[in-house]
Amino acid sequence: MTQTIENNRVRTKTIQVSEIFGPTIQGEGALIGKPTVFVRTGGCDYRCAWCDSLYAVLPEHKAEWASMDTRQVFAEIQRLSNNTPILVTLSGGNPAIQPLEELIDLGHQHGYTFAIETQGSVAQPWFSSLDYLTLSPKPPSSKQVTRWERLDRSILYATTNKYDREIQICLKIVIFNEEDYAYARSVAERYPALPMYLQAGNHTPPQQAQEIDISGILDRMDWLIQRTIADRWYEATVLPQLHTLLWGNKRGV
Ligand SMILES: C[S@@+](CC[C@H](N)C(=O)[O-])C[C@H]1O[C@@H](n2cnc3c(N)ncnc32)[C@H](O)[C@@H]1O
Ligand SMILES: Nc1nc2[nH]cc(C(=O)O)c2c(=O)[nH]1
Ligand code: SF4
Ligand SMILES: [Mg+2]
C-alpha cells in the first residue's frame, strides 16, 4: 500500500474497486439524467436474487477487482472528468463497507460532489459527509431480510451533520410484484418525510448482456404506474432504469 501526504493528511485507505467509469448519466432515481462518474466498489453483504451487478458482488470475481488507495481512485475520477468537478456516484456491491470518507473529503476539496447507492444494511458515520444518499432497502422478491434498525441508523448518521453540509436523502425500491409494492408502502409509512422512488425491476439475467427483456420492463413499469395511481400514492415517483432501456445490461455505462 502506498502512502501519500497531501494537505498534511495521510491518504492510505485501500478501496476494493470493481470499475470506475463515465461520465455517463445517472440512470435511476432522484438524480436521473445527471452527468456523473461511477465508482463501483467490490463486495456486498447481500445476495439479491435479481442483482444486476453480480460481478461486483460475488467473491469469485474478486480477482477482477483492484485494490486502490484513495488518491488512485481520485486520480481516475479526475482523468475521466478532465479535472472538471462533477457528481461522483459511489455504488457497488455495497459501497458502505468500503472506507470512502477520505475520498469524499479529497473530492470535496476539489469541488466534486458525492452520491451513494446503498441498501442501508451497513450504517457509516461518514454518510453525513455525502451530498446525496440513496437508500435502497430490498423487497421480498430479492430474498433478503431488512434490518430496520440499520436502516434507521443510516438515516440518523446521515443527518447528524458534523460538516454543515446539506445532504439529500431518498428511498428507492425495486419492484417486481404486488408483495414488493406492499413492502414499498410500508417503508414509506416508516419514513414519511423521505422522497420515495419506485423502480421497475429488470428480470433479465445479467449474463445475457444486451438481450434484455425490454417489453417485460415496460409492462412492469406500466403495471407499477397503474398500481400507484389507483392507490392515489401521489407522493411517489415511478421510474425505469433509463440506462438499462438505452444500453441493456452492458457494463461501464
Ligand atoms: C447494483 S445496486 C448497488 C448498490 C447497493 N448494493 C444497492 O443495492 O443499493 C444499485 C441499484 O441497482 C438496483 N438493482 C439491482 N438489480 C436490479 C434489477 N435487476 N432491476 C432493477 N434494479 C436493480 C438496486 O436495487 C440498487 O438500487
Ligand atoms: N447509468 C447508470 N446509472 C446507474 N444508476 C445506478 C447504477 C448502479 O449500478 O448503481 C447505475 C449504472 O450502472 N449506470
Ligand atoms: S445489495 Fe445491491 S449490489 Fe448487493 S446483491 Fe443486492 S442489488 Fe446487488
Ligand atoms: Mg446498476
From TrEMBL:
S-adenosyl-L-methionine binds at residues 50-52, 93, 136-138. Binds 1 [4Fe-4S] cluster. The cluster is coordinated with 3 cysteines and an exchangeable S-adenosyl-L-methionine. Binds 1 S-adenosyl-L-methionine per subunit. [4Fe-4S] cluster binds at residues 44, 48, 51. Coiled coil: none annotated. Substrate binds at residues 25-27, 40, 91. InterPro entries: 7-CO-7-deazaguanine_synth-like, Aldolase_TIM, Deazaguanine_synth, rSAM, rSAM_sf. This is 7-carboxy-7-deazaguanine synthase. Residues 31-249 form the Radical SAM core domain. Mg(2+) binds at residue 53. Belongs to the radical SAM superfamily. 7-carboxy-7-deazaguanine synthase family. Keywords: 4Fe-4S, Iron, Iron-sulfur, Lyase, Magnesium, Metal-binding, Queuosine biosynthesis, S-adenosyl-L-methionine. Pathway: Purine metabolism; 7-cyano-7-deazaguanine biosynthesis. It comes from Dictyobacter alpinus. Its EC number is 4.3.99.3. It comes from the Bacteria. One of its GO terms (molecular function) is 4 iron, 4 sulfur cluster binding. HAMAP family: QueE.
